[in-house]
Specification:
The chain is α/β, with parallel strands linked by helices. The protein contains nine helices and 13 strands. Strands 3, 4, 5, 6, 7, 10, 11, 12 and 13 form a nine-stranded mixed beta sheet that branches. It has a two-stranded antiparallel ribbon with strand order 1-2. The longest helix has 22 residues.
């Protein structure tokens, strides 16, 4: 008869196992569990004895999971998430009771355009929180993995680690912006028309750090884009465009359609508008977290409301 490993298992040990598997670091695990490192070491030894496996092996970079630990985590994690969700939903989540610092990292294509509305929406429901809206940077992905940032907002990131969830919240329509008295007479552009312009692009870490989406789209048509200016600051690009014949392909959420000195041009890829998905990005382990789900819903409402206003609906 097979040994019943579950009957004599302290369920608190399973939580320790899950946290250790997520953090791969004894100190970080002890901080999340609110216990001492020796207590975590003792729990790990009990887990090793129970499962007759080392589970986690020390390395120079932290802990490495054994094959047995990987198999257990894959089976246990979803069940623990379901249990956590059931327990957490037994009492209604109330953002008004939050008294924390909320950190949200946002693509520079979106940040300046939605900051005011997003801040107002958060504070209207959670008046006791401090809000930090951060420009998405090279360290943001790791900060989300480390739980140092609650939520990210960016376009689809192809190289994101598997621990991160990218949940679509809305779509963004890109337009071309030129100075108000630019000689171009059309009110729209095809991607192929991009070869006729000098182009300025906004640098967005993890999305277009090395090559802008405009460059990629033009290259798909067999052309080379003439990129003459790149910046991480929308304000710097706007100033350059207003005083030159340079074209800037920018997000509709930058709210530049009525900016004095600029003129918007619709951009089409064939007969289709130049769109891109906007995603809420967070750690897989937080996919059932009440604060994360609340923030994701709130961000989606702000983006969809702003999008509706921008389109005139």
């Amino acid at each position: 008869m097979a040994k019943d490993l579950f009957a004599n298992l302290d369920l608190n040990l399973l939580r320790t196992f899950i946290i250790l598997n997520q953090e791969r670091n004894m100190r970080k695990a002890s901080e999340r569990l609110f216990v001492s490192q020796p207590a975590v070491s003792k729990a790990l030894q009990r887990l090793r004895d129970h499962f007759e496996d080392e589970l986690f092996v020390k390395t120079h970079h932290g802990l490495r999971a054994t094959e047995k630990a990987n198999q257990l985590a894959e089976s246990i994690s979803p069940l623990m998430d379901e249990l956590a969700s059931a327990v957490n939903h037994s009492s209604e989540f109330d953002p008004a009771e939050l008294d924390v610092t909320l950190k949200i990292a946002i693509s520079p294509f979106l940040l300046s355009g939605i900051a005011k509305d997003l801040f107002k929406s958060i504070r209207s429901e959670a008046p006791n929180v401090q809000v930090q809206l951060l420009n998405w940077s090279k360290s943001t992905i790791q900060d989300i993995v480390n739980n140092d940032i609650h939520l990210g907002l960016n376009y689809t990131i192809g190289h994101a680690p598997k621990e991160l969830v990218q949940k679509k919240v809305t779509e963004d329509t890109f337009k071309g912006y030129v100075r108000a008295d630019h000689p171009i007479e059309k009110d729209y552009l095809e991607i192929d028309d991009g070869v006729d312009f000098e182009i300025a692009t906004l640098v967005a870490a993890d999305w277009n750090s090395n090559q802008s989406i405009t460059e990629k789209m033009i290259k798909m048509r067999g052309h080379e884009a003439n990129i003459v200016f790149r910046s991480e600051l929308p304000s710097a690009i706007i100033d350059i465009v207003k005083n030159s014949d340079i074209l800037f392909p920018g997000s509709s959420f930058l709210n530049l359609d009525t900016h004095p000195g600029l003129r918007p041009l619709d951009i089409y890829f064939g007969k289709v508008p130049f769109d891109s998905d906007i995603n809420a990005i967070y750690h897989y382990k937080n996919r059932n977290n009440a604060t994360t789900l609340w923030l994701r819903s709130l961000v989606k409402n702000v983006l969809c409301r702003d999008n509706s206003e921008l389109s005139g609906h």
